[in-house]
Amino acid sequence: MLNLTNIQGNILRGYASFPHAQFLFFAIDNADDAKAFIRRLLDMEAVTPALWRAKPDATLNIAFTFEGLRALGVPAESLATFPSEFQEGMKHRADELGDIDESSPEHWDDPWRTHRVHMLITIYGRTEPALAAHCQRLRDLLPNGMQELKPDQPAGQLQIDGKLTRKEHFGFEDGLSNPAVEGVPDRDSKDRENVGNPDDKGRFRKIPLGEFLLGHPGDGGELAPMPLPHLLAHDGTYLVFRKLEQDVVRFRRYLEQQADAFARAIPGGLPPDITAQDFLAAKMMGRWQDGSSLINYPERPGKDRRNTFGYAGDPAGARCPLGAHVRRANPRDALGFGGKTMSRHRLIRRGIAYGKFLPRGEEPESQETRGIIFIALNSGFDQFEFVQQKWMNFGDDFEQGNDTDPIAGNRPVIGGRRSAQMMIPGDEASGRRPFICFDIPRFVTTRGGDYFFVPSLAALGLLASGRVVA
Ligand code: HEM
Fold it and tell me: Which residue of 354, 377, 438, 470 pairs with 228 in a disulfide if CB–CB is 3.0 to 4.6 A?
């Protein structure tokens, strides 16, 4: 049974109407002080569940790393029941996650490089003053036995031409496709656009709650392994936090360099009003910048961003390349077997941009960085690690060999060759020739992050009481 008042916010429903965010990081030196701090936050009713009585001006959510749970005094018998990836932490999963070269942990930003964060507090505000006031209230409550780790991480929806948008820094509409989850009532048309996994009749079926929340049956009817005690785990989830820096100048420069050659592969020429750069960028992403899908609109952006599409009708990738980012990240029906292969491979994404948008043609100021705070939620880190390892940083499932994701993948050297190419299949119908993007540089670099446990509200109460018994 789904109890929305026990589940922290930003899991089953996003905070789209809260455009400003702040991520605060803490170390726990004294467990009793930390428990008292959690109690105070709960007393303030500051921790927002998935269901509000009245919409607040700002939200507040709490998550812990494994070291954080230990510092809070959770007993060893309980700690030992948490997943091994969580126990190790993200830094120690660098090989599995492909965090190599510039992305490797020794190059990360603070606080990730020098500290092991214990507690993450995420605050979203409807306005900047509301966000600042909420952060201040929280900092005023901080006890002596806890310290805030610096720097904090501001983030927010990107302002372009003075307007708030849902775009990411490469210019694409983001936050369009999330899993439709069984039992979660749709709130608006945006929720209705979410898709589950495809069935064998060409429709989508909602995904069981247990793929995303602990203590509920998953896609095969089974419960994901649960840490003990069950009261601690039930209605909780795991959060992947990754600071992903985007090199916008490099991305735009690469598109420019390829533009003429790509345009020559299109015999009838480019569709009117479409630049070769925009067409090529769409082929890499699998959607046009306005969010419309290449499956529905293969030649030019369409008038809608419909999300109910599949790839089975485009087996060779003539419309959406087999190696495009969104096709790799959620292959939908492309892998056959009535969509059953998608179990345990879906992620709820709640990413938000950081840094200022760089208008086209402008050079960035030195030291200025930008990217996404990538947030994925799942009932086991196997879900995120699978997508990251097998689909972002490897291409075999899509007949792409060692080639990595053109947008978010790393660029390892394998057999003396840097696997940095992407095949854009041709299209017999229009006579478009195949085009290979060679020597794609790295556009996205990991700058920090960790694995977190997001307890339910009841579990936060249990942690604050100090009565966790495995
Ligand atoms: C800076 C890096 C990244 C950028 C700029 C980026 C951008 C985008 C954009 C523009 C979309 C399409 C809009 C949408 O469906 O919401 C998308 C979809 C998606 N991305 Fe990424 N992404 C990045 C990294 C990642 C990573 C690392 C993963 C997973 C490990 C990932 C997983 C997904 C998933 C699952 C979807 C939804 C696909 C679908 O359901 O059709 N992304 N991304």
Answer: 470
